[in-house]
Input
Amino acid sequence: MTHSSRSTTLDAYAQRFQKLKADLAQIEYFSKGTLLARMVRCGKPRCACGKDPSKRHGPYYEWTYKARGKTVTVRLAPEAAPFFRAAARQYRKLKTILNRLETLSRQALAKLAKDPSSRSST
Ligand SMILES: [Zn+2]
Output
């Protein structure tokens, strides 16, 4: 491997790193957690929900997440559910970007560790 091809690789890492940082800047409000839409039985003896699962009431939305090892459940208005669904999606996106940034960093650092002088040629 020649010195120039090695530095080209480092350039490529740097470019991919910049691109991922730009993706990171696009992140909106995020939260780790799960959105649940629950269909429930009311318990009234004559209500159809008791026998027919399709006649259950709801959906009732709940947002659950873990805080200090405990599961926290928050009831949500139906109108609020989309915001939490989006926040969960943003969280997964954030984790994906961070994982890619770390993998990329490790590869670039390994390259630099082998040949520290290659950095100056970028
Ligand atoms: Zn009912």
In short: The radius of gyration is 24 Å.
